[in-house]
Amino acid sequence: MENKRENWGSKTGFILAAAGSAIGLGNIWKFPYIAGENGGASFVIVYLVCIAVIGLPVLIAEILIGRTTQRNPVGAFYKLSQSKFWAGVGGIGVICGFLILSFYAVIAGWSLGYIVEAISGSFYNFSEPTASAEHFNFLVGNIFWILGFFFLFMILTMIIVFAGVQKGIERGSKILMPILLILLLILMVRGLTLEGAGSGMEFLWNPDWSKINAQSVLIALGHAFFTLSLGMGAMLTYGSYMSKKDSIPNSALQIVVLDTVIALIAGIAIFTSVFAVGLDPAAGPGLIFHTLPAVFIKMPGGFIFSILFFILLTIAALTSAISLLEVVTSYFVDERGWKRHSAVIFLTGITFLLGVPSALSYNILSEVTLFNLNFFDIVDFLASNILLPLGGLLISIFVAWVWGFDKALVNLKEGAENLIDNYPWVISFWKVFLKYFAPILIFLVLLHSTGLLG
């Protein structure tokens, strides 16, 4: 007997859950440091253009595939094409989501562990980022610390997905997303009120075009694509629970706006704080775990704000992780006929086991490398640099060239009649961007991210 498929209880629930999927460590952790390395405001402007040209059109396409078919990525592509090849393309999304969750949850475990570090007051030992970095290396070198918080984070993710679409993911998103926004606003206001914060705002909002080159444009393109959780089946899966009465273009635009606003607020909160205490805004990936603990301890009220920040970081990671686990869960429920509860428990266990070598890459497996990459780096490279852009590239090709705009627009019009009838130029732009710009630009992202370009 086929399982009855769940749906979102409201449009707001879908938007918050989808925005939660998009708003992850990439917004709070990655965006500020890549902006810092590429000239601040000038990079932000290029990034916003990339979001409009590549992010929004592909997001609309991915949600549309899911809502039209009411299936997981594999079932969705097969239903529209009756082709095993395209079903395999959906399978790329499922595998990609599974792989990303296995190492993403390891990083999320760090943020969870840093809540405890902040509460314990250990940051008071760090007068400089070098001391903070040494402490971070000590922690991830501890097998019990890194595996323990990784396991705990996976349990939190499992509990939410276990409860279902409405009672788990939607309800959780309606609670977690407002908390995330409130915490981020508190941290932004705190940063803005620090002496010297003006330098951070100047860095973020005054463009330095001399630092923009082909490399930084490709980085902006890549982040615009990755930040919206495109190509991993998450938006397709969430779209499959969406009502036909809701407008996909409007929903997609709201998701993009939320995602971008959160990234910019995070940038303000972090840069104002970093500049106020005279540290380097272009500190790279270590900005969060190496630099910020030293930043917090130098600012008034830093103890409280350090706790709030790492709670915020963990929530951002959690809202993304539940979407990744849901991608794999939906496949087993739809295609294999598994009960949700059994699928979630089993897949959580498998994900944890797959993630163990990634966690151990920072201690006992640190010397085990292939092409100078440890296990964590290999899984990250395979999923993020190859499978993600490949999935996004094939989604844009599928909608524009295989499924076809005639059929796609019939389904896109449901819930968006006024927009499509009154503003046909919007659809014309979408078609042009999806058919020509998106495939070319995503292909460049694929070449760049694999090291074959630039």
Explain what this protein looks like in three dimensions.
By secondary structure, this protein is mostly helical. It has one domain: Amino acid/polyamine transporter I, CATH 1.20.1740. The chain is built from 19 helices and no strands. The protein has helices at residues 11-22, 25-37, 41-69, 73-81, 84-120, 129-140, 143-162, 165-192, 197-205, 214-227, 234-239, 248-276, 292-298, 302-335, 340-360, 375-403, 405-412, 417-422, 424-449. Helix 4 (73-81) runs antiparallel to helix 5 (84-120), helix 10 (214-227) packs across helix 19 and helix 16 (375-403) crosses helix 17. The longest helix is centred in the first third of the chain and has 37 residues, at 84-120.
